[in-house]
Amino acid sequence: MSADNPPPLIVAISSRALFDLEDSHALFERDGIEAYAEHQRRYEDEILEPGIAFPLVRKLLALNEGAAPDAPRVEVILLSRNSADTGLRIFNSIQHHGLPISRATFTSGEPTWPYIRPFGAQLFLSANPESVRRALANDVAAATILPAKAPQHRHDQLRIAFDGDAVIFGDEGERVSREGGIEAFHRHERERAREALSGGPFRAFLSALHDLQAAYPPGEHSPIRTALVTARSAPAHERVIRTLREWGVRLDEALFLGGRAKGPFLEAFGADIFFDDSQHNIDSARLHVATGHVPHGVSNP
Questions:
Q1: Of the residues 163, 165, 252, 277, which is catalytic?
Q2: Which helix (H) or strand (E) holds 299?
Q3: What is the Cα–Cα distance from 92 to 121, expressed in whole angstroms?
């Protein structure tokens, strides 16, 4: 590790993204808060199973191995709409699974997004679409995670994949494509090949992840690997490459798929999570890997 450690990467996550709480949530939807609270108290010593984002969180926290206790490289914050009383089962499960998560907010049904910024989080993952939209509106990278059981383990490396337009970059290209078609898009990108793209909602998170990754030697032994997985193809590739170069951000892999379904490529990459703004791409990706929907840009009015 470099002697000049970057500030910690801070990720905020909801309890339904971290653990499999779908039976409890269904009970809440069907019978209300009192039945839900009684259920959580009755089973507070019964450990929750890992949820869709659990492997991601475990790998993120594993990056603290060898770091000083008062200078972690990564911190994960729990933001939950449970009360402190019903949240006891969640903390019991965190401790059982050996996750070093100590900071949490329980809001008793109120929104959790206002606490993202005070914690300094660069990323927010939640099963609540409205919370994600509010976080994005307040300039925090955020994605909606469709709850499910934890996916199968693929790699010890932390592997994160990003879509380009409307995620890492602004949605300028998508707007041109929608208004004028693919030929207009390619002409637009050729003419502006040396003009940097604007930053999207995940630019700051990507930069923070890059700073963390840069503290490790590059190559196969790095604990972090990143990928751009985009529907773009030549000649629209050049502007992307030049933009990342201007930003000083490294991505280990870049897949220019020209409209091919992304899911099989993400499985081949072994992504722990993939972020995309298009519900069509999310539907393909989630058959293969954990996905986060970024409700931003022209695809998400």
A1: 163
A2: none
A3: 23
Burial of 259 (0-12, 13-18, 19+ CB in 10 A): exposed
Class of domain 9-145: alpha beta
Q: Is 163 a catalytic residue?
A: yes
Averaged pLDDT of the chain: 92
What are the C-alpha distances in Å from 164 to residues 57, 186, 232, 284?
Answer: 23, 15, 8, 16
* DSSP-assigned states of every residue in 174-200: HHHHHHH-HHHHHHHHHHTTTSPPPB-
108: left (phi over 0), alpha (psi -120 to 50) or beta: left
Q: Is residue 99 within 8 Å of 58, Cβ to Cβ?
A: yes
Print burial letters for 209-221: b (CB count within 10 Å at least 16), e (below 16): bbbbbbbeeeeee
Query: Domain ranges in the chain?
Result: 9-145, 158-293
Residue 227 pLDDT more than 80? Answer: yes
Model confidence pTM above 0.90: yes
The pLDDT, as a whole number, for residue 25 is 83
Query: Residue range 13-33: average pLDDT?
Result: 89
Residue pLDDT, tens place only, 172-194: 988 988 888 888 888 998 999 99
Q: Please report the pLDDT score of residue 4 as a whole number.
A: 59
Q: CA 215 to CA 212: how far, in whole Å?
A: 6
Domain 158-293: CATH class, spelled out: alpha beta
